[in-house]
Design brief:
The protein is 47% helix and 10% strand. By secondary structure, the protein is an alpha/beta fold. A hairpin with a 2-residue loop joins strand 3 and strand 4 (113-114). Helix 1 runs antiparallel to helix 4, helix 12 crosses helix 19 and helix 13 packs across helix 19. It is globular. It starts with 9 loop residues before the first helix and ends with a helix. Bound molecules: 6-O-phosphono-beta-D-fructofuranose (F6P).
Length: 548
C-alpha cells in the first residue's frame, strides 16, 4: 500500500509553518504593510487582468507555493500534457484538448500521428455544414429551411455548449432558436420541442461514447417526435446529425455517418466544448466567431505553457486554490460573474472542476491525507448579493470568491442618474471584493451611531479572500481565454494533489445500480428486492404511488 507523498514534502511543511505566521494576518494588515499591493499582486496577459491581491498571501506564501509547484514537477507535467503523454493514467489516454485549438501550423503527435490536421479537417467540415444550415441551403425533409436547433447531450456533451450559447448569445443568429436537452426527465425534451415545427428542426445528438443512457433515451424520443410529425422514417436523414467518437453506435442509432462529426478519445468529455461537441455553438455564432473563440483558448494555452510561474495566470489561480483549500481550510469556491451572459458559467465550471478534482486517491492509488477539489458554485451578480452573500460576509465558513467582470457591456442601458446601468453593476462587483476583504470593525460601526446591542450584528470581520478577473468585453476570444484559464487551473491543482484530473470513475456506481433499479421499477408483479431496507421501501412506495 503506497502513501501519498505530498504532505511529507519539505515544501508542504514549509507552507504549514508559514501558515502559522501568516494565517492569522488580516488583509487590512497586508494592505497597510504594502501600499502598492493592489498593483503588485495582479497579472495582465492575453486580455485578462487578474487581481489576486485580496487573497490572504504575501510574497513568502507565493514563493513557497511556487516551490511546492516545482517540487510536484508542475513545469514537467505541463510539458507532458502538451506533448501528448498519456497523463490520464487510469484510462491510459493522452489529454490533448489543447490540440483542439492549435493552429494548423502546429504539430502534436499522438502515438506518432500528427492530430492537428485531423482537428482542422473536422473544423472545416463543421464550418461547411454550419454555412449550409445558416444560409438555408440545408433543407429539412419537407423542403423547409432549418430554423431550430436542439442539441441533445449531457455532462460535457451539454454543459459547455449551453454555457457558450448563453455566453455568446449577442453574437448569435437571432432568427434561429437554440434549445438544449440533457435530463432524462421527459419534461426536458417535451418542453424544448412543444412549440417547434419538426419540419424546421435539426437535432444534434452529442455523445462521446454514444452509449449514455440519458442522451440515447432522449435521442430516441426526439426521433419518434420527428418521424411522427413528418410521417416518414426517412426524415431522420435531414433532421439528425451526430457528434461522437463512436461511429458504430451512431450508425446503429440510424444516423448516416456522413452526418457525423467526430472527435477523439484524447478529448475528455468536460474538455470537449471546442471540439465538434461545439457544433451548436458554431451554428449559433458562425464559424468565424467560433474560430475566434478557439484562438482565445489557444492564447491562454500558450501563456500557460510559456510563462514563468510567478506571472502564469492558471498556475497562480491553481496554487491559490491549493492555499485556500489546504492551508486556510476553505471547502468551497464561489464563482460570481457580473455578466448576465455568463449565467451558466458556474454550472459549467462545476463539472470541469468537480468531476476533474473530486478524487480521493493519488495516481498511485494511495488514499490522500489532504483535501482535494473544492465545491464550486455560484450565480451571476448582483442576484447572489440578495441571496447567499450574507453567509459569505458574516457566516462562519470561509468562501473564497472569484469575481468576473467586464469594463464594457454589450447592452448599454442608461441609468436614471445619467450613468450607465453597467457602471452600477461593476460598482457592485468592486464593492463586494472590498467589503469581503476589509469588512467593518466594531469601532467603525459604533462611530456610525449604531446602538450597542446591534454592533455585533453589524460588524463585518472581513479577511474573506477573493480574486477579481477583469476583461474589456465579453467576446468569443475572451470567453476562450477565460475557460482555458479555469481548465489549466484545474490541472495545476490536480498536479499538486497528485490525482488523475481526467478520469471520472465516481459516476459509475450510480449508473450501474440504476440498471438494476429500473428493472425493479418496471417489473410486472412484485419484484424480489435485495437492497437495504430504505432502498427496498422506496422502490415499493414508488411503485405503489405510481400504480395506485
Ligand atoms: O457523467 C460522466 C460522463 O462520462 C461525463 O464525463 C461526460 O461528459 C458525460 O458523462 C457524457 O458522456 P457522453 O458524451 O459519452 O455521452
Amino acid at each position: 500500500m503506497s502513501h501519498p507523498k505530498l504532505t511529507r514534502l519539505p515544501q508542504w511543511q514549509a507552507l504549514k509553518q508559514h501558515h502559522a505566521t501568516i494565517g492569522a494576518k488580516h488583509l487590512r494588515e497586508l494592505f497597510a504593510a504594502d501600499p502598492s499591493r493592489g498593483e503588485r499582486l495582479a497579472v495582465e496577459d492575453v486580455g485578462l487582468y487578474l487581481d489576486y491581491s485580496k487573497q490572504r498571501v504575501d510574497a513568502d506564501t507565493l514563493h513557497l507555493l511556487r516551490e511546492l509547484a516545482e517540487a510536484c514537477a508542475l513545469p514537467q507535467r505541463i510539458e507532458a500534457m502538451f506533448r501528448g503523454d498519456r497523463i490520464n493514467t487510469t484510462e491510459d489516454r493522452a489529454v490533448l484538448h489543447v490540440a483542439l485549438r492549435a493552429p494548423a501550423t502546429e504539430k502534436i503527435l499522438v502515438d506518432g500521428h500528427d492530430v492537428v490536421p485531423d482537428v482542422h479537417a473536422v473544423l472545416d467540415r463543421m464550418a461547411a455544414f454550419c454555412d449550409q444550415v445558416r444560409s438555408g441551403a440545408w433543407l429539412g425533409h419537407s423542403g423547409k429551411r432549418i430554423r431550430n436547433v436542439v442539441s441533445i447531450g449531457i455532462g460535457g456533451s451539454d454543459l459547455g455548449p449551453v454555457m457558450a450559447y448563453e455566453a455568446l448569445r449577442a453574437y448569435s443568429r437571432r432568427e434561429m432558436t437554440f434549445r438544449f436537452v440533457s435530463n432524462v426527465d421527459g419534461t426536458d425534451l417535451v418542453e424544448a420541442t412543444r412549440d417547434l415545427d419538426a419540419a424546421e428542426t435539426l437535432f444534434i445528438v452529442c455523445s462521446k461514447t454514444f452509449t449514455t443512457l440519458e442522451t440515447l433515451t432522449n435521442a430516441h424520443a426526439a426521433r419518434r417526435w420527428c418521424v411522427d410529425a413528418l410521417g416518414d422514417q426517412k426524415a431522420v436523414a435531414r433532421h439528425f446529425v451526430a457528434v461522437s467518437t463512436n461511429a458504430g453506435e451512431v450508425a446503429r442509432f440510424g444516423i448516416d455517418t456522413t452526418h457525423m462529426f467526430g472527435f477523439w478519445d484524447w478529448v475528455g468529455g468536460r474538455y470537449s466544448m471546442d471540439s465538434a461537441i461545439g457544433l451548436s455553438t458554431m451554428l449559433a455564432i458562425g464559424p468565424t466567431h467560433f474560430r475566434e473563440m478557439l484562438a482565445g483558448f489557444h492564447a491562454m494555452d500558450t501563456h500557460f505553457r510559456r510563462t514563468p510561474l510567478e506571472r502564469n495566470l492558471p498556475a497562480l489561480m491553481g496554487l491559490l486554490a491549493v492555499w485556500n483549500g489546504n492551508f486556510l481550510d476553505a471547502a468551497t469556491v464561489a464563482v460570481l460573474p457580473y455578466e448576465q451572459y455568463l449565467k451558466r458559467f458556474p454550472a459549467y465550471l462545476q463539472q470541469l472542476t468537480m468531476e476533474s478534482n473530486g478524487k480521493h486517491v493519488t495516481l498511485d492509488g494511495a488514499t490522500v491525507d489532504y483535501a482535494t477539489g473544492p465545491i464550486y458554485w455560484g450565480e451571476p451578480g448582483t442576484n447572489g448579493q440578495h441571496s447567499f452573500y450574507q453567509l459569505i460576509h458574516q457566516g462562519t465558513r470561509l468562501v473564497p470568491c472569484d469575481f468576473i467582470g467586464f469594463s464594457q457591456t454589450l447592452n448599454p442601458l442608461p441609468a436614471q442618474d445619467g450613468g450607465d446601468q453597467h457602471d452600477l453593476l461593476m460598482a457592485n462587483l468592486i464593492a463586494q471584493g472590498e467589503a469581503l476583504a476589509f469588512g467593518k470593525t466594531a469601532d467603525e460601526v459604533r462611530a456610525e451611531g449604531t446602538p450597542e446591542a446591534l454592533v455585533p450584528h453589524r460588524t463585518f470581520e472581513g479577511n474573506r479572500p477573493s480574486t477579481t478577473i477583469l476583461a474589456a468585453r465579453l467576446t468569443p476570444h475572451v470567453l476562450g481565454t477565460l475557460i482555458a484559464l479555469y481548465e489549466h487551473s484545474v490541472f495545476v491543482q490536480g498536479v499538486i494533489w497528485d490525482i488523475d484530473s481526467f478520469d471520472q470513475w465516481g459516476v459509475e456506481l450510480g449508473k450501474q445500480l440504476a440498471k438494476t433499479t429500473i428493472a425493479e421499477l418496471t417489473a410486472t408483479g412484485e419484484p424480489k428486492l435485495g437492497h437495504d431496507s430504505s432502498t427496498n421501501t422506496l422502490i415499493r412506495r414508488y411503485r405503489h404511488l405510481r400504480d395506485d
